[in-house]
Predict the 3D structure of the following.
Amino acid sequence: MKSQVEEKVLAALDAFQIEMPSWAFSDTGTRFGKFIQPFAARSVEEKFADAGQVHAVTGCCPTLALHVLWDCPPGSPTSNIKALEKKYGIRAGAINPTLFQDQIYKHGSLSNEQPAARKAALDHILDSIKIAKELGSRDISLWFADGSCYPGTTNIRHRKAWMAEGLKKSHDALAPNQRLLVEYKPFEPAFYHTDIADWGMSYIYSKAAGPQARVLVDTGHHYLAENIEQIVAWLLSEDMLGGFHFNDRRYADDDLTLGSIDPYQVFRIFAEIRLFEWETGKKADIAYMIDQSHNLKNKIEEMIQTAAIAQEINGKASLLRFEELAKAQQEQRLVDAESIFRDAFDTDVRPAIREWRRAHKLHEDPLSAFRASGYMERIGRERAGRAVAGGTYA
């Protein structure tokens, strides 16, 4: 007979999926240079192939987020992506317009002073929405590098109005089942002001754009010591939390492995979501996605590692004793309430996760299973000696 811990963790794992980013399988780097890995994917097919390996051993990563231009270049039919979905058993996930690398976006995209730049950005978003419709992708994820680096060089209010106008037009092009996810970032590459610098700005833009727009939270896009779980709680209460880009950080947008620096913070985020679901009796409609720049670790192995960590921490959050917690909070028993949090976080859920994997005919240790598969040796032979291709951003 299964214990209560096992039952809760197994139910949590059955309901949990996390999306992979296509760009994490490619060579990436920092502002100082790109770091080359001999096994890195250099085509969209290789990205699908590598993603298929991750899902095969974790059982929780069935979709791959795509970046338009990198994965769906102009003139490339979506039938190519559909064929890859069928071949590798991975579906296309969120569609991400690329609004930062072309020279026309040097001073911004939707909030650029130049009408031609704003039109180019909007046309690209509309093209991306069309791609999403053809692929059956629900979410269009928007991140903007828009902002300025020097005081007095731009009219911030004008840029706000241009951004709002572009987002509204983008929203109006959505199919009824689609969503617009609006990401924010406090700085980089704009260091004086960023046009969508925090969750409040994203909230205002999303509300103005229309009912199918939501806020997208990237855990790395916050100032040091910022309380991300409070942001999550507020957005949940407003029905405006659309999704996550999960990673970890020591300073700012470090793009480190999820849970490698502060796993308790990840737990606190999942705990707020679990508490919301318990209180309301409804499942939060949140898209979970990994967004890490795998510069130094083996890209496929880090993706497997991250998925396993996400499963573990989400499993821990499922063990919160909500009735006891609510009572302790109401009675202002601070030590007891915090201890309930710590009890769930400190519980070793790995035995239950191994049981879940066995039940789903997966190896108990996904990383060992991948290493034993011979996949790295095979792609090492197939991808050896290729010319280094132009790649993605850091």
Notes: Residues 389-394 have pLDDT under 50 and may be disordered.
